[in-house]
Amino acid sequence: MKLHWLVRFLFGPVPVYFSALAILIVLTNAQYFGLVGVGVAPRAAKLASSTPVVSVMKYCDIFRGEWVPDAEAPYYNHKTCHMIQEHQNCLKYGRPDLGFLKWRWRPSGCELPRFDPLQFLQFARGKSLAFVGDSLARNHMQSMLCLLSQVAYPKDMSANPTTQNKVYHYRAYNFTISMFWSPFLVRSRAPENDGPAHLGHWSLYLDEPDESWVSQMPRFDWVLVSAANWFSRPSLFYEKRRLIGCSFCSRQYGVPDLTLYYSQRRAWRVALRAINDLDQLRGRVIVRMLSPMSHFENGTWDQGGDCRRTQPMRANETSMEGRDLHFYTAQMEEFRTAEKDAREKGRRLMLMDATAAMMMRPDGHPSRYGHWPNEKVQLYNDCIHWCLPGPIDIWNDMLFQMLLAD
């Protein structure tokens, strides 16, 4: 009799009900019990009643400031967003230090509102946004997709899912995000033999814009253009279809080594001129300044260099020099010239100058955490791209502010 009572007590309908309820509570609140690694701030549920986001750009320069602690971050992780490029999926591949996630950007003189995915989608209803550039443009786009995943997932409308060009559509908001792969912004041809060390020479036609993206720009409300890192690859330079120079080349080509600084400046000049020459351009063009290439320490990218820092630097601890400074200066000069030309045509080019903020974040790169430790892959430590989630998420804080202020 006592045994029968004990069985009913342990396995009867009431105990089973409460046991199931307890399991459900644990699973639905897994982030608070440490069951999913990095917790995600429970923010999305409160978005509908949040204070409307307004632009603070008339009060301060959002591109100058410091990084300050942020206990609430991050707002997504590799388990809540499945749209992270594998090589930037630092949490999935076991990055042990997670303090790099707990920072936000504070401009001097104001607070920068966090990117609000619901309000952004409402603001962008019926519009379209294009990212143009290389893998850092893709890095930026995927940051936006992950931030928006707190509210909605898009449908992949890409013509060919295996290519670098992408199209994502948010049906409920009639909002489209596109990616145009154009790492040099001008017409280019890949080398026949490149390899993991990227020793093959690209052919760059420095007086011909890449029509694969330029011709599509009139369709978009917002176009964000960027390019920098790929100019560091060995290249042959053509103008008027004639070989006139090269970078990282030997005498075998019979032309001078004009260096990568020549191609980077020329490409930006031609790309911005092509934008200004578009008769049917209806949207706003935003130029993003370069993301630092100088965060490798104790060696170059192909000589064991790495980025193992675990927290941000302060503004007075960083300075731009070398390749970063050359690229930044040339890009800024070409932008100012194009901005003046656009103004004379009654248009406006916008500048997203996130370089100073990102100079302070050598801790935000994947380093070796873009693949499993025992995986046999020919990859170098990555100190160019940014972990997702990570510091790059502030690019969307800045972008939303710029669009609101426009």
TrEMBL record:
<keyword id="KW-0333">Golgi apparatus</keyword>
<keyword id="KW-0735">Signal-anchor</keyword>
<dbReference type="Pfam" id="PF13839">
    <property type="entry name" value="PC-Esterase"/>
</dbReference>
<feature type="transmembrane region" description="Helical">
    <location>
        <begin position="6"/>
        <end position="27"/>
    </location>
</feature>
<keyword id="KW-0472">Membrane</keyword>
<comment type="similarity">
    <text>Belongs to the PC-esterase family. TBL subfamily.</text>
</comment>
<feature type="domain" description="Trichome birefringence-like N-terminal">
    <location>
        <begin position="59"/>
        <end position="111"/>
    </location>
</feature>
<dbReference type="Pfam" id="PF14416">
    <property type="entry name" value="PMR5N"/>
</dbReference>
<dbReference type="InterPro" id="IPR025846">
    <property type="entry name" value="TBL_N"/>
</dbReference>
<keyword id="KW-0812">Transmembrane</keyword>
<dbReference type="InterPro" id="IPR026057">
    <property type="entry name" value="TBL_C"/>
</dbReference>
<protein>
    <recommendedName>
        <fullName>Trichome birefringence-like N-terminal domain-containing protein</fullName>
    </recommendedName>
</protein>
<keyword id="KW-0808">Transferase</keyword>
<feature type="domain" description="Trichome birefringence-like C-terminal">
    <location>
        <begin position="112"/>
        <end position="402"/>
    </location>
</feature>
<dbReference type="GO" id="GO:0000139">
    <property type="term" value="C:Golgi membrane"/>
</dbReference>
<keyword id="KW-1133">Transmembrane helix</keyword>
<dbReference type="InterPro" id="IPR029962">
    <property type="entry name" value="TBL"/>
</dbReference>
<dbReference type="GO" id="GO:1990538">
    <property type="term" value="F:xylan O-acetyltransferase activity"/>
</dbReference>
